[in-house]
């Protein structure tokens, strides 16, 4: 049994999907959780729904001052910060030759830069206060070109956050901060609609490529993230766990 009693966790993009499921898991293990999302109303609504022990806050992960203010306010309000889940993410389906500059930049800003800002600001606090755990959410798309949908900006951002975990784990190991990544497969959340989940042909193609022949429940990813965030994973740092129903096997 994972025991997170007394721990304070932040889940970015936690208002729905994998982030909300992770919040529920962390709370079930005894942590208090701050859901931080660019959709503040949705974060507060999710916090009420998942309460007690959950708090909704605003953050835009693309804005380093917003991320820094979140870390400072959590530390001031709760007196500690133990776990940071870099979960916020966006994806827009597009072929490289049609990819508009602004879509490329927006995707890199949220998925790669936003993850770095979160890790850096949480890591700054954790390195100075005796340690902690950071988990970045990568993707199968970091390890295999997905098809029939394509989204090169997302894919390179997601391999970036996986490698970021290795580099930061090395930098911060002696400070007691562990950094890992989870690379989920096709998981049944709203983001899948942005890459074609409403299209029966695309869904059929995905299912035919997944050895387990199914989408993943957000709770299945949440359990892996919670394990990595806990002391049960005390010797694991700088790793990527593939939770993808066999997609990259
Ligand atoms: P989702 O769209 O349901 O949730 C993403 C959340 O991030 C939303 O609540 C959104 O408001 C928030 N967000 C977006 N931009 C933000 C910003 N600038 N600042 C703060 N919050 C922001 O998606 P999900 O499926 O739950 O995805 C969660 C993570 O898992 C993402 O990083 C995604 O890339 C990754 N992932 C998802 C799948 C999948 O199949 N669902 C597969 C692999 C990886």
From TrEMBL:
<comment type="similarity">
    <text>Belongs to the short-chain dehydrogenases/reductases (SDR) family.</text>
</comment>
<keyword id="KW-0560">Oxidoreductase</keyword>
<dbReference type="InterPro" id="IPR002347">
    <property type="entry name" value="SDR_fam"/>
</dbReference>
<dbReference type="Pfam" id="PF13561">
    <property type="entry name" value="adh_short_C2"/>
</dbReference>
<dbReference type="InterPro" id="IPR036291">
    <property type="entry name" value="NAD(P)-bd_dom_sf"/>
</dbReference>
<protein>
    <submittedName>
        <fullName>SDR family oxidoreductase</fullName>
    </submittedName>
</protein>
